[in-house]
Amino acid sequence: MTRSQDNNFGCSRCKDKEALSFDISMAFQPIINTASQTVFAHEALVRGTNAESAYEVFKKVNSDNLYPFDQTCRTKAIELASNLNFEQKLSINFMPNAIYQPELCLRTTLAAAEKYNFPIDRIIFEITEGEKVDDLEHLKEIVDYYKSRGFLTAIDDFGAGYAGLTLISEIQTDIVKLDMGLIRNIDSNKNKQAIVKGILTVCKDLGSEVIAEGIESHEEWAILRDFGVELFQGYYFAKPKFEGVAEINFPK
């Protein structure tokens, strides 16, 4: 029996709509297309209500409140994106271990999208590869269901987590985000260059777009651009803006 078939602890909380016991907000960091000099998406990054860091927020998260935290993050991100009149895509991180039955756990997201008039085909759900997932089949069910409902999906921090190439061989997402560990100083590291070139080839064959995240220098951007990457995210272009739209430095 898979977790999605097990009407357990998590799903009872879904039905009961348990509220989170503390408030959160979001900062937004743009993901840009440097070829077209446009914004592709804005990633929602959790913050405290007084702009406290994600680290401070996550200190309050535990196994007892993981589900309402995940749901609250989705709703808050959609609400703020709507208030800020985002016309681009909205990227939201989600925690696979907080999802039990995808069709039930998605109801809050669908309700928020309808309430705030934010099109679901502009919402990207990012799977954080750094979170260990014991049930790969369950994760595949989640991704397949989200895609069937019209959402886009992405693997975040690819190259940093537990599954690596096994994950993208089993679960095909629309987008793969390269972890900053692969990106840092890639312009002077031949090993990283070879690895990233290989990943780009695999993603092209699988039909997944690639985003290089964590760009901090012109040199890192330039070599990845030369490799054919068009979508980028990082402090070199823009820092996250708390409850607002970041100012972007488009490279020449």
UniProtKB/TrEMBL annotation:
Family matches, as SMART domains: EAL
Signal peptide: none
Molecular functions (GO terms): cyclic-guanylate-specific phosphodiesterase activity
InterPro entries per UniProt: Cyclic-di-GMP_PDE-like (IPR050706), EAL_dom (IPR001633), EAL_sf (IPR035919)
EAL domain span: 1-252
Coiled coil: none
Record-annotated membrane-spanning stretches: none
Domain of life from the UniProt record: Bacteria
Gene3D superfamilies tied to this protein: EAL domain
PROSITE patterns assigned: EAL
PANTHER family according to UniProt: BLUE LIGHT- AND TEMPERATURE-REGULATED ANTIREPRESSOR BLUF, CYCLIC DI-GMP PHOSPHODIESTERASE PDEF
Protein name, per record: Diguanylate phosphodiesterase
Record organism: Kangiella koreensis (strain DSM 16069 / JCM 12317 / KCTC 12182 / SW-125)
